[in-house]
Give the backbone structure.
Amino acid sequence: MENVLQQAVVIFEHAVAAVQPQQFMRKALAGIDTAGASRVFLLGAGKAAASMAYEAEQVLGGSIAQGLVVTNHLPGYTLEKTTVITAAHPVPDLNSVIAGTAMLNLSSAMQPGDLVIFLLSGGASSLLADVPEGATMEELQELFNALLKCGADIKEMNTVRKHLSTIKGGQLARALQPADVFTIILSDVPGDDPAVIGSGPTVPDPSTFTEAWIVLEKYGLAASLPEGILQHIQNGIAGITPETAKPGELLHARHVIAASNRIALEAAAEKAEAMGYHTRVLTGAATGEARELAVSLAELALQYEGPYPACLLAGGETTVKVTGNGLGGRNQELALATGLLLQNAPHITFLSAGTDGIDGPTDAAGAVINAAALAGAPDPRPFLEQNDSWHFFDKTGTHVKTGHTGTNVMDVMVLLLQKP
């Protein structure tokens, strides 16, 4: 990679380092009174659950009676008190259901005076799952996969997920009574809404079965629902199936947002400034279809009139409506679409990558691109049409690959502008 491409990667890596659990877990745990609890249980779900549990064990040590977390990647270290289950993401598998069953079974042992510390991060919607009565695992997987490909945003997807579960939407906290529940959250959604992050198994949920049905209709999925899933939602709308836990119900449960994309962007800005860039954070809530956001970001970069060199930063999470048969993820698609628009602007470099180190079903976190990287590369347009960004960046050699990072606060986008 050329120097400016490497600089963009360094800025991204600095953002990821700032939201590692060792940076925030000790402070979050300091706000919990564990001394007054009869027993302390450490539970969790999400891509960062194991790394968060490791830091919790360093602080709480022998006071933990039992621990159980589900994540998507075995950690490279040993947890003394906590059992780790690995399950699939972004579509649940049998291990997701095993983890969900184990959590519910453990909840039945809760007694007055017990304290549950729940570690929640993005990915929990898939990693911690159950199957509605009358439906099959395969039907649930097909629906979740369709939601991922239709262009629905994370709030819409999780509204549906919560209403096909007896765990999500605060229902796990409901089951954990009479224990007190304190949830430490690593946010991976725009706006840091705790009801959306990981489908909020331990926080109140204002959404309804009716809203879930509206989402399914909006994306053309309602008409093809399997009978068991359709019946479950219809029973919920009719009031036969219980709703998720609503605001005001979970008086025994509290939560804190311990880290978010904002912290990552602040760290990225700090690093970019130290490297000599005039830095501006554009937004921490970049959403919408990746190709549409590419147009907005490219226009901002091309119309920039400030001092050089400049670094423009954004955070958020886009969506991709998959119509092709290629391999990629939202960050690679965004990078390819933006690079195509900036191919005649050799002074601009663009990076987009996921802070969890995973972009779609690929081995990359994202990609970095500029006119120099495009020179000599194949025509990017057929790759974009087929949603095949991974194979394009495999040819340019400008993937961003970090491996599993142990954290997850959405995506970071970096625009580096040299003087034209």
